């Protein structure tokens, strides 16, 4: 999985392209460009940094992860859900057995190890897209 073209994108709430995006829109962009899969973008849920907005993101992530299959051993393109300030409201994209591509407020898109001390205790789980065959 080549993520070189996705590194350095600035964080922008509800942004959806290389000029700026949030963590979920980065995943949506990679899925569209690399896999030809259109994921829902949930544009209306992340409107500001308020606790209410973060709770809305966490609630949506909890509801929507039912469309994904949780896996124990992640592979490239699996989504990793992470806790921030006690809420599962951040997502990254697995690029290999130990690294993820992600972006967050104050951090341009980057690659980091999800087993690092910074992230290991925040991992909620790994999820694989279930293609709707209906």
Report the radius of gyration as a whole number of Å: 14 Å
How many distinct helices? 2
What characterizes the major β-sheet?
Answer: 6 strands, antiparallel
- The overall pLDDT average reads 86
Q: Structural class of the secondary structure composition?
A: alpha+beta
Describe the fold and architecture:
The protein has 134 residues and is an alpha+beta fold. It is built from two helices and eight strands. It has helices at 23-35, 51-64, and strands at residues 16-17, 20-21, 68-71, 79-84, 87-94, 99-104, 107-113, 123-129. Strands 3-8-4-5-6-7 form a six-stranded antiparallel β-sheet. A two-stranded antiparallel ribbon has the order 1-2. The chain is globular, with a radius of gyration of 14 Å.
Secondary structure elements and pairings:
Elements: E1 16-17, E2 20-21, H1 23-35, H2 51-64, E3 68-71, E4 79-84, E5 87-94, E6 99-104, E7 107-113, E8 123-129
Antiparallel strand pairs: 1-2, 3-8, 4-5, 4-8, 5-6, 6-7
């Amino acid at each position: 999985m080549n993520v070189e073209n996705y590194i350095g994108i600035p964080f922008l709430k509800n942004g959806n392209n290389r000029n700026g995006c949030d963590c979920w829109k980065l995943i949506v962009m990679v899925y569209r460009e690399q896999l030809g899969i259109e994921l829902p973008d949930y544009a209306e849920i992340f409107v500001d940094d308020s606790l209410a907005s973060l709770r809305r993101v966490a609630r949506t992530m909890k509801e929507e992860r039912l469309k994904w299959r949780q896996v124990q051993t992640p592979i490239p393109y699996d989504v990793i859900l992470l806790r921030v300030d006690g809420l599962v409201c951040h997502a990254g994209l697995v690029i290999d057995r130990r690294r993820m591509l992600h972006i967050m407020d104050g951090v341009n898109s980057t690659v980091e190890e999800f087993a690092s001390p910074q992230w290991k205790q925040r991992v909620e789980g790994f999820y694989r897209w279930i293609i709707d065959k209906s």
